[in-house]
Amino acid sequence: MNDNHTDSIRQGVGAGASFVVDNPQFRLLDAPPGEAYKLSEPLDFSFAEVRSFILGAMTAFVERFAVDGLEVVFRDNRYFPPGRGPELEHLMTELVGSIRAMLDRRAGEGKRLVLGCRVPSTIDECHVMGLDVLAWVRQGLVDYVSPADCMYAEFNLPYNEWRQMIAGAPCRLYPGLMNWISIPARQRAAGRSMSQDQQRALATSMYAQGADGLSIYNHFLVMVWSGGDAGDWRERGVGAHSPFYPMALHDLHDLRTPEWALRGRRHYVFDLTWGGSNSFGKERTSTGKVKAQRASLTRPNGRDEYVFRLYEDLSSVEAAQLLFRAYHMTLADELAIALNGRPVPERGLRRRDDEIRRDLRPEEQRDQRLYVTYWFPLTGDLCERGENRLGVRLIGSDASVRENILIEEVEVFIVPRFDSSLDSIPRQRSF
Length: 431
Hints:
By secondary structure, this protein is of the alpha+beta class. It folds into two domains: 7-267, TIM Barrel; 295-416, Jelly Rolls, CATH 2.60.120. Helix content is 23%, strand content 23%. The chain contains ten helices and 18 strands. Strands 9, 10, 12, 15, 16 and 18 form a six-stranded antiparallel beta sheet that branches. The protein is globular and about 70 Å long. The chain starts with 6 loop residues before the first helix and ends in a 15-residue tail after the last strand.
């Protein structure tokens, strides 16, 4: 809906480029600080001419091709002048209503062409951007909603808020399954996608909070990190786990149903979604929201909490473990650890300061901070289904270190219980 990357203007492709080039008065030029804002010249949807142009492009497409419907993708950084999104969101609702009416006319009596919308992660972010998704749902304009960050998968989103919002309406919830977890994880892996275990974990969380299915985005693309910030990625034609597109898409079969996702290992990763980025301002996403959760312990006796969401029945799994990394920490420091106010037993609690971690960046670009890795068994008496609070208190401080201790990464590993019915599957004979 506004994702031109400036390429269409530069290349002069199609009527869309002409409209933007010939009508500079319709562009949004005032942008907040951030390198990524320089990569596009978005249109200002407060102008009737812009909304008419967008509707005209969609109408031409539907008339030319035998489509089953349209998806309107609101993953871009602006639609209205700064700060005016909430007061102007009725204009976007009118546009979505016009798109719905156009599809209904095209479909004919007794038929319906699908209209879906891909929108920012949370309802609050949508309002900031001028998107009144609740109105779209209540007025029966859209058939499904797909909330997602513009680039990264978010393990900690309250997807159940979306479920509650569309309750009772003929609208489905398809959360967006993006290709990467976060900027730091993407950098460490040189652009490689989420692992299969991580995709199963995210799908499990989405289904448990009421998702009707999943919507994939950017799974055709894997990038190689070349340093710097926005604009420093280059494409590589390699799939996430299988070689080359479209073979990699077969990795998604495990995610088709909640039951299928639960059959395999799950690896949950809660970390700094936009950590270290200045693309849209310091650690902000395209909506302007800061997405970089940390627990910070001031020396010598600070305390804090790290909040994460987990929807697992721990009584039905073979094993579960929680891991977190505490940066600017040494083994001379001591922590008291609790989960949801319940002390984590010393038995089973382990730590080390020499974790060997996979990092494919050049040596000079790797994180050089000291850190200690903690891990312990995750049990049902410690963990809640839903929101959990990892409480950490500094009870012994290393006098040689001045920096605050930062907890930026919490991970949960789940091993499913072995299904004995699989033991009857014939095995290939060996000689």
